[in-house]
Amino acid sequence: MDEAGLSQPAPAVVRDFDHHGEGYRANPLGMLGELRRTCPFAWSEHHGGFWVATRYETVVAVSRNLGAFSSAEGTVIPTVSDRRFLPIESDPPELQDIRSVLVPLFAPRPMQAEAPRIRAEAASLVAAICARGEGDVVLDLAQPLTGRTTLRLIGLPEDEWHDYAGPIHDITMGSLPLESASSNFEAMVERMRAEIRRLRSSPPPGSVLERLFEGEILGRRLTEDEIDGIVLLLLGGGLDTSQALIGSAAVHLGRTPSHRRALIEDPSRMDDAIEEFLRLWPPTQAQSRTCTRTTELMGQAVQPGQKLLMSYAAANRDPAQFEDPETVDLARNPNRQLAFGIGPHRCIGSHLARIEIDACLRALLDGIPDYRLREDALVFSRDPGLIYGYLRVPITV
Amino acid sequence: MKIQLDRSLCQGHARCAAKAPGLLLLDEDGYSTAFDLDVPSGQESIALLAARNCPERALRVRDDAGNPLWPPD
Fold first, then answer.
1. What pLDDT, on a 0 to 100 scale, did the predictor assign at position B73?
2. pLDDT tens-digit profile of A35-84?
3. Is residue A157 within 8 angstroms of chain B, CB to CB?
């Protein structure tokens, strides 16, 4: 057996899987379910070749094995930008050092302190939809709420949220061809960099930027490039993900009056319900790693240099972990869903995300309990392999 | 009933505190502080449910006789 032969995955595990292809866009959940049932650890020849893990236990094992699976070469397949996003695209010891700067800023307590303002803003956005008699859950509620909140917490001008959100959504939801989306994205990054440099001498008090300017990792101050990378990730994570889940949840509740009634009659059920929505429609469908050390997974030898895609969306419907995984069970409990990832890269913004999602769904159900979905005008993501969600969720009052 | 935290596994998801507020407490950064918690009588079921909601399975639960209740492995 020659050396090259050793590194080739067995033909039996090769599957025609492309999370950016038309088949995935048309039926992402069906495609993932089929893969998990028939070949739970598969090799795809698309995008230069990569492993696809669809079982819960495999996703957990890979997420925790930082010694064999690196994030430093990117966490999406294929790469959409040469910019470095931090700390998501880092390994130890940089990873833990950057996280120790950020985790306290986004911890449950400081985020709870933001909750009253977030709830008030959600209520006022819903009141505006009410007054017009129609509106869009994504465009008029979820995006402005998460946009303003994210920009304010970072310390960037919150009225300019759309200038940041637009170019990010154009890439992650595929609303523009990649070429023009990329040039808009690059222009946004340059604007962000200029703004950060402008604020260097007088960052807004209490802002993330203020803390980053003083932040230390590896026994030294954060560099300008590292601060850019951190803010870029906060923008991507803050502007993209919660808004997508809010849209998916609003579509489900619009189609399922019994669930809508259950949450209106007993708002204390919202916490479990949100976990269930996160399980079923994780905005970040998958993340990738690069193997650095030969590792056996599901009977296959994963070799250094090979990419591996972990599908949170597939793991979240793994029947080995979740009973009746395709059923929307508002009372599912426990629910160890993986929408925020697991292990040392767990999403730092998860506490903020849950508050934003809760604020928007409660404001919607309080303010417009009988909202009607305009099914004919729903627009689903054009590239759900990156972010699963809706570009438009129009409703009438 | 006793709950013991494996701090090397806790990643600060804070689901334990969401499920058992006032019982399973967090530090300033949002990590569990249930290093060796005696669960008050009457709160066993909520404590067990909170532990079972930890995605990292960082909370071990034992009954008064020391028998492991969670995680199963």
1. 76
2. 999 999 999 999 999 999 999 999 999 999 999 999 999 999 998 888 99
3. no
The mean predicted confidence, pLDDT, of chain A is 95
Closest listed residue to residue A295, CA positions, set A5, A82, A62: A62
Kind plus residue range of the DSSP H or E element containing A201? none
Residue A357 to residue A142: CA distance in whole angstroms = 8
CA pair distance A86, A101, nearest whole angstrom: 12
A336 contacts B11? CB cut-off 8 A: no
Q: Is B26 on the interface with A (CB under 8 A)?
A: yes
Assess contact for A214 and A86: CB atoms under 8 A: no
A262 and A162 in contact (C-beta within 8 Å)?
no
What pLDDT sits at residue A2? 41
CA atoms within 13 A on the CB side of A129: 31
Residue A252: CB atoms within 10 A of its CB come to: 18
Residue A310 contacts residue A32 (beta carbons within 8 Å): no
What's the CA gap between A304 and A227, in Å, rounded?
Answer: 30
Residues in A closer than 8 angstroms to B54, CB to CB, are 336
A336 CB neighbours in chain B (<8 A) are 52-55, 57
Q: How far is CA B18 from the centre of its chain?
A: 11
- Chain B neighbors of A344, CB-CB under 8 A: 11
Is the Cβ–Cβ distance between A45 and A21 less than 8 Å? no
pLDDT in tens, A83-108: 999 999 999 999 999 999 999 999 99
Q: Is A56 on the interface with B (CB under 8 A)?
A: no
Helix (H) or strand (E) holding A104: none
> Which residue of A60, A323, A350, A358 to mutate against B (max B Cβ within 10 Å)?
A350
